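tool_call: predict_structure(chain=1)
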Amino acid sequence: MTKNYNKAPLPFQGQKRNWNGEFKTALKKFDNCNVFVDLFGGSGLLSRMVKDERPDAVVFYNDFDGYHKRIANIPRTNALLADLRVIVKECPDMKLIREPQRTAVLERIKADEATGFVDYITLSSSLTFSMDYVTSFADMSKTSLYNTVRKTDYTADGYLDGLEVVKQDYRELFERWKQIPNVCFLVDPPYLSTDSTTYTGYWKLKDYLEVLHMLKDTNYFYFTSEKSSVVELCDWMERNYSISNPFHGAVKKEIRTTSFNINYMDIMLYKRRNDE
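tool_result:
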């Protein structure tokens, strides 16, 4: 039996673990849908939650950021972390890693890079402050390193089971399914006005606005935050210029997200086709 995951098994910026309860409750209203397309799959947590709640449904997880590759390399990552624990065992927890251990840590990471894959995002959670991610050896070698090395191994048993993993431009994936009435789109693009360092590609305002076109006449879940002001922008355009608002008639839920130096309102909107 596949384990039910309430959070992604590996670190990922912007994963939807805080929405576990609200999302699964709202999902019950989409019993008319038997195909779910996760356009911006990210960590795959939304796809996983859908499949757990709706094992009968076909779920497409668009892993454009290569999260499944990180999962496939968990044994390699665990082996690296095991060696790092030995190197920093004399270093105080949560404190700066100083010489000679710092050089030893970097040399061990460089050795893994020379022979294959290194999951720098996962390593960041063990060597830097929370959510201070690096994505390359060059960046890691320039940053301050701290002894926050994880004490236990990572596991992702069954995390991708039952999911249709694809790697495709979200626009192509949408075009494939947009005319099918029993499809629900999961739309979770990188948030506007927030750090998107670990995401593939670079997003501008026009990219966010283009995504909004996809919401018209579809079943959807859409995620954003108060920092983006996308919801307010659409409302203003509707009131002042009579431009169709893709969120008109949608149910809006909010969750306050607070962690370390982060404090903002996370927003989920969902709507069934033709509901007003």
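agent: The mean pLDDT is 89. Proceeding to next step.
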